[in-house]
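anyone seen this seq b4? input:
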Amino acid sequence: YNELDQPVCKVCNVPVKSESAWPAHQISRKHQE
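predicted toks r here
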């Protein structure tokens, strides 16, 4: 989690808006790269 208490993807260092956004993030292009 970052200073804004948002979950952060350790793979691409991108903050994810919410826990429910994880599945969408994991299949996103940013995460795949």
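The mean pLDDT is 91. The helical segments are 22-26, 29-32. kinda curious what u guys think
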